[in-house]
Each structure stands twice: as structure tokens, then as C-alpha cells.
Write a structure and sequence with these properties.
Layout lengths: L3 H31 L3 H41 L2 H5 L16 H4 L35 E4 L2 E4 L1
Antiparallel strand pairs: 1-2
Helix pairs in contact: 1-2
GO biological process, one term: embryo development ending in seed dormancy
Family: Belongs to the LEA type 1 family.
InterPro entries: LEA_1
């Protein structure tokens, strides 16, 4: 749906186009009246056609410009988060912020304390992790491909 401003701008551009076309036709008539040969009359006709085509092109450019102005004004007026962040990294398609790993985003990772060394037995594989809240007292948890087991 067109806004009132866009519609009035389009009407003004169409009126300007019609004035340009009428002017081109009048100039063609004046050139034909002073032309001595058929070739000169043909040149006058071609000039008129070129001026009409230029006027129509300018009309279409103006209409596109008016539509772009309307869209730009709507963006500035409503300024929704979804419109502003739709395809930006760190936002989903609804404009909600999503966590992004700083390394993926190309930013430096925040300075943190060094991670504790993982205790490894003589075989080199990491030791089984113990979870005090879920592991019965006096047992050790290990994981296989089928689930958790307690020993």
C-alpha cells in the first residue's frame, strides 16, 4: 500500500513526464515546420521519441526513489530489533540475541584462570569423572556407549 506522500510524489512525477512529452511534441512540430527535407523531419521525429523515452525513464526512476524513501522512513520510524538485526551474527531470525563463542565471532577470548590439569592414569586415558550428587557413595562412575555404570 502506498503512503500519501509516495502517491503524491508519483502523481507529481507523472505530471512532469506529461509536460516533458508535450514539450517534446511541440518542439518536433516546430522543427518539422522549419525542415527543408524529409530527412530533417525524420530527425525531428527521432529526437521527440528520444525525449519521450528519457521522460518515461525518469518517471520510473522517480517512482523507485519514492518507494525506497518510504521503506527507509519505515525502518527509521519503527526501528524494530528484528529488522535491524535480522541477519547479523549473534541474533536469530526474530532478532533475539544468541550466545556466540568469542573465538567464532573473531574476538579475543576473555582472560580466565588456567584450566586445572586433567588427572591421567598410567594408560594415558582421562580418569572417570565423579559427580557427588548423582553417584552413590563409595562407587565410581564410568561411561560406555550404552549409558552410565557404577562400580
Amino acid at each position: 500500500m502506498m503512503s500519501a506522500k509516495q502517491k503524491i510524489s508519483n502523481i507529481a512525477s507523472a505530471a512532469k513526464e506529461r509536460i516533458t512529452i508535450c514539450t517534446a511534441k511541440a518542439e518536433e512540430q516546430a522543427e518539422k515546420a522549419t525542415a527543408a527535407t524529409a530527412e530533417e523531419r525524420e530527425i525531428a521525429k527521432e529526437r521527440r521519441k528520444a525525449k519521450e523515452a528519457r521522460a518515461k525513464m525518469e518517471l520510473h526512476e522517480a517512482k523507485a526513489r519514492h518507494a525506497a524513501e518510504k521503506l527507509d522512513a519505515r525502518k527509521h520510524r519503527y526501528g524494530t530489533v528484528a529488522a535491524a538485526t535480522h541477519h547479523q551474527p549473534g541474533h536469530d531470525t526474530f532478532g533475539h540475541h544468541q550466545y556466540q563463542d568469542p573465538a567464532v565471532m573473531g574476538m579475543a577470548a576473555p582472560a580466565t584462570a588456567a584450566a586445572p590439569a586433567v588427572a591421567r592414569p598410567a594408560g594415558g586415558a582421562p580418569m572417570a569423572t565423579q559427580y557427588p550428587s548423582t553417584v552413590p557413595a563409595g562407587t565410581t562412575q564410568y561411561t560406555t556407549g550404552t549409558g552410565h555404570h557404577y562400580v
